Amino acid sequence: MTAFLFAIATCISTGLGGLLAIRFKDRLRILLGFSAGALVALALFELLPEVFAETKNGRVVMAASAVGFLSLFLLERFTLMHQSREHSDGSAAHEMELGEMSAAGLSINSFLDGLAIGVGFNHNFSLGLTIAMAVILHDMSDGLNTVTVVMAHGNPLRRCVIWLVVDMLAPVLGVLSTIFIKLPVSIFPWLLAFFSGFFLYMGASDLLPQARQSKSPAIAVATIAGMVLVYVVTQMLPR
User: Which of 54, 74, 170 lies closest to 117 in space, CA to CA?
Assistant: First the structure.
């Protein structure tokens, strides 16, 4: 039930990000920088230490983390390959399809965010809480990106709203999947390692480059603040 409540919070966060994208997109780079720092810190200060505390097989742990890193990389590459094919055609209909495909990729990303929350709470409360906080911050930028990518490719506002709703529901479905499908305890360390790589890529290769489009020094401050906050929280939570 706790995981489900946090999933509802991610749903609200995603919706808020989408609404802000319509109004204040150019002023949200600081939030992206903060989210990037928080996600990288989550992987470094919470997920990987938790995994190494559960298992001594460091090589396998890092391999699982690499799989998580590469899975998001390959998803983005697939989207870019599709983008290249669509631009070679040049039709407005294909351009709109590209925006929707990008939104679908973001929705899959949000589903995995919810899955991470469910796995974290199934493991222990403090881990689930830390993951949930980072995901809530990240999903606001997901909502922002969903609306902007669909709109940027010539889709009407109605279609932007439809994909925003899909993205809002995706983390809830991710959490629900861990409630109704009970995973064996032995698989948790490898799932946590997978999500550590997933969050490292998301923070360093997705959110931070977007934040760096602004030259404001506040971006660096926000990124450091995100890392410091997650570090402090992880040290204060009971084990």
Answer: 170
* Domain chopping of the chain, boundaries: 2-236
pLDDT at 166 over 90: yes
- Separation of first and last alpha carbons in the chain: 20
HSE at residue 151, side-chain half, CA atoms within 13 A, is 17
Counting other chains too, the contacts that 216-225 makes at CB distance below 8 Å and 24 or more residues apart are 216/29, 216/30, 218/30, 218/33, 219/29, 219/30, 219/33, 220/33, 222/30, 222/31, 222/33, 222/34, 222/37, 223/33, 223/34, 223/36, 223/37, 224/37, 225/34, 225/37
SS (H, E, C) 103-124: HHHHHHHHHHHHHHHHHHHHHC
Q: Output the average pLDDT for the chain.
A: 78
Provide the 10 A C-beta neighbour count for residue 173.
15
Query: What's the confidence (pLDDT) of residue 95?
Result: 56
pTM of the model: 0.66
List, for residues 185-220, the tens digit of each pLDDT value: 677 788 888 888 888 887 887 677 766 777 778 888
Which pLDDT score, from 0 to 100, does residue 210 have?
Answer: 66
Cα separation, 148 vs 186, in Å, equals 40
Contact 107, 176 (CB under 8 A): no
Identify which of 202, 184, 195, 189 has the alpha carbon closest to the alpha carbon of residue 67: 195
Q: Distance between CA atoms of 205 and 190, rounded to whole angstroms? A: 22
